[in-house]
Design goal:
mainly alpha, 10 helices
Length: 233
């Protein structure tokens, strides 16, 4: 169905199509005077806010373009990808709670649609990245059980060694579930390549480089430490 837009200013389009309202943004009509004062007299009356306004303009144009594509082809998956991108822009602008809310809504939608073959899902790499991002944000907020749940999803869906190592660390140091940490460490050891000791990436998600993993010796050291902790009375 058609909709009536409140205006053709970019901020109006962002509010209507993206449900994103700018906060503390410099009004565009003030920019020429600020720039003139800076160039003519060397007075800085808000150039930093001008730069921030321009950054928001560029980010908004990209998202509006993606929304236009979605409206054109009608795919819900494109809308989810748009919201995922918006969450990352909010994070870059230190709006963590808003970004977290979007990512949580996307995850809830994924769970609701997992048995619906007609539902348009996120691309696999984006879904994978969103889960890891959620796990990281939860950990930063000390919501360790929720972080572990996201990492377990990544391990189960993608057999991702990076997520498994993060989960083992969380189980050992924050959740104190030492047996589970040892189990995941043993799986990582089994996945190591033998002559050079570099951990391999078994899943199709290739952009998490094996270079971020531990060597076989480091994993064996972790295993021994966990065994000592478990045996300690």
């Amino acid at each position: 169905p058609s909709r009536s837009l409140p205006g053709y200013k970019q901020k109006d389009l962002e509010a209507e199509l993206l449900q994103a309202r700018r906060e503390d943004d410099l009004p565009g009509e003030e920019i020429p005077q600020i720039y003139f004062d800076y160039v003519k007299y060397g007075h800085d009356n808000g150039m930093e806010r001008v730069f921030q306004h321009n950054i928001l303009d560029l980010q908004g144009m990209v998202l509006l373009f993606l929304e236009a594509v979605r409206l054109y082809d009608g795919r819900e998956g494109a809308r989810q990808a748009l919201r995922s991108g918006l969450a990352r822009i909010l994070l870059r602008n230190k709006r963590v709670e808003e970004a977290l809310q979007i990512l949580e809504e996307l995850q809830t939608l994924e769970e609701l649609n997992q048995h619906n073959v007609e539902a348009q899902a996120l691309p696999e790499q984006l879904r994978y990245s969103d889960l890891l991002l959620l796990a990281s944000l939860y950990r930063q907020q000390k919501r360790y059980n929720q972080s572990a749940r996201m990492l377990e999803l990544v391990v189960r869906r993608y057999d991702c060694p990076y997520a498994r190592l993060s989960l083992a660390r969380l189980m050992e140091h924050q959740l104190k579930q030492l047996e589970h940490a040892l189990l995941h460490t043993n799986v990582l050891i089994q996945g190591c390549e033998e002559p050079d000791g570099e951990a391999t990436v078994e899943s199709d998600i290739r952009y998490r480089s094996a270079g971020r993993m531990l060597t076989l010796d480091e994993l064996e050291h972790r295993k021994a430490r966990l065994q000592r902790k478990i045996q300690k009375p």
